[in-house]
Amino acid sequence: MIAETKYGTISANFRKYYAVVRINTQNSLAYTWDAVSQGILIAIFILIFARLWKVTFAAQGAEIIGDLTLRQTIWYFVWAEAIQLSKMNASFKMQEEVQDGSLAYTLGRPYNYLLYHFFSGVGEVFVRMASTLAFGMVIAWIEAGTPSFIRWETLPLLLMVTVLALVVDFCMSAMIGLTAFFFEDTMAFRLIYQKLLLVLGGVLLPLDFLPDSVQTVARLLPFNAVIYAPARLFVAWDTSQFLEILAVQGFWIAALGFLLALFFRFGTQRVSINGG
Amino acid sequence: MQRLNKELRFIGHLIKLGLAGLMEYRASFLMQAVGMFINNGVYLVFWMLFFDRFKDVKGYQLEQIFLLFGFVALGFGIAYTFAGNAGRLAEFIAQGRLDYYLTLPRPVLPHVLFSRMGSFSVGDLTFGLMMYFFVGKFDLLSPILYLVCAVLAAVIFVSFSVITGCLAFYFGNASFVHMQLQNTMITFSLYPIGLFQGTIRLILFTLIPAAFVGAVPVEIVQTRSPELLLGMIGVAIFSVLLMTFVFQVGLRRYESGSALHVNL
Known about the structure:
Chain A is mainly α. Chain A has one domain (7-268). Chain A is 74% helix and 3% strand. Chain A contains 12 helices and 4 strands, in the order ββααββαααααααααα. In chain A, 42% of the residues are buried. Chain B is mainly alpha-helical. Chain B has one domain (2-251). In chain B, 73% of the residues lie in helices and 0% in strands. Chain B contains 13 helices and no strands. In chain B, helix 2 crosses helix 7. The two termini of chain B are 31 Å apart. Chain A binds chain B through residues 33, 37, 40-41, 44-45, 47-48, 51-52, 55-56, 59-60, 185, 187-188, 191-192, 195, 198-199, 204-205, 209-211, 214, and chain B through 28, 31-32, 34-35, 38-39, 42-43, 45-46, 49-50, 52-54, 56-58, 176, 179-180, 183-184, 187-188, 191, 194-196, 200.
């Protein structure tokens, strides 16, 4: 018996979304300068952060701050910035589709609108992530030396956590994009979300370095599941922490995914198509 | 002198028109300006959290960071609010959009630069002005020094943007490199200069003059050194001369475009 969904069999769906990922990956490969630009950006960020934390560790006379050594701190930023610079830009694309009305066309196509955006984003992430990691790792290697603390055998599990982080980010980002149904321009929400990721998500500094009260709040929010959690595992693997992160990400994906589906349903009810 | 007055009046007129254009879409303008204001504020939150735990970075404490952000934001804000096309010069050259300006009886470079006002950068400008109140230096000299240095920083911002934009005269589509170099300058200018030594430091004082739009003005306001101020004025004048020279030389290589453009 073949399981059927609204848009066809599971294997047909798999082939369909796989094709979306493949086409978008090829598309991103055509724009190599875009990937290189992200690579240059991460190189500058890693260089600056490396200098900043070298000076800070030296001034403190400390070997370890917030359970991280200097070397771990610098390498933490490689993974954190790679996610930050590579993640999907779903909110902007969705806002544009709502604003210019092209959503009316895409809604009628034989795919799930949200899944289509997610998988087309995945295709772009592959290319950008490869470029940012390559550039970032070279600078981190020069500035901090060999990352002997990284357990490369855990890389598949780390990639899994990173993919789940992208799903959490997609849920929040898509919800922001869909607010265009109600507010037209979503730039303000997008900016606020980006900034929350910078401070409470762990892009600018690991949560371990934040004051205790801010840290407690940051750990309760979903932003740390996007950046901090995978980056922290990258430099300090801990199996029990991995399982904990998996549970937290699972919770946020379920909660935010449910809200996103509701939001999408409610928003599309407001779409009126008038020929043309 | 008469000609200079005439050109300055012309620039004033362009700015007036640009402002009227921004006011046409008031809600959007306000949203963009407020968005940029929030954007800058978050970086400041990062430094506040940082200094809550660590007290000093190469002689910089929170007060110096406020000053540094103030200078960069105000300098950038003045530069790109008034010379709104500075960041798009490479795009203009590559697309042949200088044709429009070349046919008019005005100096091309100032006409291109000032014929559009930036709306996002108004948020930077406001942020830069507000930063000064956090610093709390309210004697007679400090605010004047602050404004003078910010204007000099703005001149350096625009000059750097034009010089890097002129790469398009040689490489065709240089918009990407142009944007990257501008971002690099801003990023480096927002961190204490003491973090960078050797070659990087040399680059930040020469090829990418990030030190002159952030760290040097901070030093001037703190030490009130007339030598440093004179040095910064010299750098600003030199950058304007260099910008004019590079643009004029590049313009000889300019190739007209066949695309139709509408200048509103």
